[in-house]
Write a structure and sequence with these properties.
- With 256 residues, this protein is an all-alpha fold.
- The protein has two domains: 145 residues, no CATH class; 73 residues, no CATH class.
Length: 256
């Protein structure tokens, strides 16, 4: 069987075949996002009413977001439908990611396709939800409180730009346990190695949090960094539970 063959005996793809495969996966992903865009477009106004709630809750009562160019509301709804379309299409996109890397996996590793798509898509949506319910309200409260001596005139495009970065950024950050899980399954990392590198991981996490956080204050950065640390620890737990088992031949050799 293929899974018992040495690594060098597995089918290989040329560089051009990799490019063709990448083109195919990108094409399918773009089509999926376009379909998600069309689905979300009809509800884009309702979606924006939901998305603006965190900042309206901390602004003076009766305040509305503003625009300065005639085309801004239309472009806003397009961008909202695109953002929602990415979340809607995330299972398809992640499945395309799996299909792209699948040729480099052994047959027994390819059976993880469905769990990967289900958990990766779920964690992506969960990260966006966490950004909407926890991280962004903290950012909005800090920024509005900082400018409380001034009259707020918040532009809709600037607002969506900050919000989109937080939602998508945390959606990607929440992929950490999934990535660690599969790296552990193929033997690239172990739970012991991850624990040994924990202090360095925390440093990298706070650097990433500083980059994706739109404000420089420590509490808001911690709102990003602490969940990332928890996700890293969850990844270590998954790496320990689902770590790659030694092959039967290697185990018997060690016993001998």
């Amino acid at each position: 069987m293929t899974e018992n063959l040495p690594e060098d005996d597995l089918p290989r793809m040329s560089f051009l075949e990799h490019l063709e495969e990448l083109r195919k996966r990108l094409t399918v992903s773009v089509i999926a996002v376009a379909a998600g865009f069309l689905v979300a477009w009809w509800k884009s106004q309702e979606i924006f009413r939901l998305l603006q709630k965190p900042v309206l809750d901390v602004l003076p009562k009766g305040t509305k977001l503003a625009y300065t160019q005639l085309t801004e509301p239309f472009m806003l709804y397009i961008n909202i439908a695109l953002l929602a379309g990415i979340f809607i299409a995330s299972p398809v996109i992640l499945y395309q990611v799996w299909l792209f890397v699948a040729p480099g996996l052994y047959r027994h590793e390819k059976r993880w396709a469905v769990p990967f798509v289900v958990f990766a898509a779920s964690f992506f949506v969960l990260g966006g939800y966490f950004g909407y319910k926890v991280a962004f309200p903290m950012v909005a409260k800090f920024l509005v409180t900082t400018g409380q001596d001034f009259t707020p005139v918040l532009k809709i495009d600037d607002y969506l730009d900050i919000l989109s970065k937080i939602l998508l950024g945390l959606g990607l950050v929440f992929q950490t346990p999934i990535v660690i899980f599969f790296l552990a399954r193929i033997g690239v990392v172990t739970e012991k190695w991850l624990l040994q590198k924990f202090r360095y991981a925390v440093l990298v996490i706070f650097i990433i949090a500083a980059l994706i956080t739109p404000t420089p204050d420590i509490p808001t950065q911690c709102a990003f960094a602490l969940p990332m640390i928890a996700l890293y620890l969850l990844g270590i737990l998954l790496a320990w539970i689902f770590k790659k088992k030694p092959e039967a031949g290697a185990a018997s050799d060690q016993a001998g």
